[in-house]
Write a structure and sequence with these properties.
It comes from Micromonospora chalcea. By secondary structure, the chain is of the alpha/beta class. β8 and β9 form a beta hairpin. α1 crosses α2. The structure holds NADP nicotinamide-adenine-dinucleotide phosphate. NADP nicotinamide-adenine-dinucleotide phosphate (NAP) binds next to β3, α3, β9 and α8.
Amino acid sequence: MSVGTPIERIWPAPVTGALTDPELTALYGRAARPHLRVNFVASADGAVTLDGYSAGLSGEPDKRVFGLLRMLCDALVVAAGTLRHEGYRAVRLSPERRAWRRERGLAEFPTLVVVSGSLDLDPAQAAFADAPVRPIVLTHADAVPPPGLTDVADLVRCGTAPVTSTDRVDGSGRVDGSGRVDGSGRVDLAVGLAELRRRGLDQLLCEGGPHLFGALTAADLVDELCLTVAPLLAGAGPGRITAGDASPPRHLPLRHVLAAADGVLMLRYARDPAGSAPAA
Ligand SMILES: NC(=O)c1ccc[n+]([C@@H]2O[C@H](COP(=O)([O-])OP(=O)(O)OC[C@H]3O[C@@H](n4cnc5c(N)ncnc54)[C@H](OP(=O)(O)O)[C@@H]3O)[C@@H](O)[C@H]2O)c1
């Protein structure tokens, strides 16, 4: 890929000069053991969206790392809310990135994994209909798929974890004011991730959104957070990168800080310093 805005490492040991794609790839890497990496972009004042979408917060350096992280993973995990709202398309990788994966014995494309309690999913959405690898939908035992969904995706049913007591459920099944329609239960994410790993999908990249990140944090399943901080104030209104029920704080040490020449910061937090091994 052609390098646009230069990105340098400024912490822990400053590296002078723009990082190449192989150097960036090595800085993120694939972990030596099963690993869940979460990737978000936020404004300097903590907003998860600008005008309702993440696109306004993301620029060329963020998109570059976003693409590299997709190249590195076995499966790309996304919540149904973000899939619907952001209009997810089929996962695509450049010929160079597909070759990088083939050379390492990986599938040419990562598998898309969608987390949905309601199964309010459109089988005609390009993320399903044009997928290069059959997607997986993590849902719960009682969820009823819409017509055509099982033609384009595998359903994996992960428990019937009850709606928590802090959720308020109205007559429509809508809970906690989040817009999350839950029907009769939540996906048991620990069981779901274990099933992905049983299928050989060890390196997981979660692209959100906030409710899924909150649930993964609450279940203590997050190994790493890659956070891009855009140099702008979004002002009041948008939510944070996490949402849902409160959970205990989790310590997550800072592992590196990259700075792009346009003032964008890319922070990598991970609980295990040895979790990632150089991938290049
Ligand atoms: N800045 C960023 O990097 C970034 C990244 C991603 C998203 N976003 C933004 O975030 C917003 C979307 O957020 P959102 O509130 O819709 O949250 P979300 O986490 O994207 O989606 C919530 C939905 O995902 C499913 N879900 C999540 N966790 C679940 C669990 N444990 N069990 C069962 N289902 C689960 C449910 O789908 P069902 O309703 O199908 O049951 C739920 O309604 C959008 O504005 C998007 O642009 C920003």
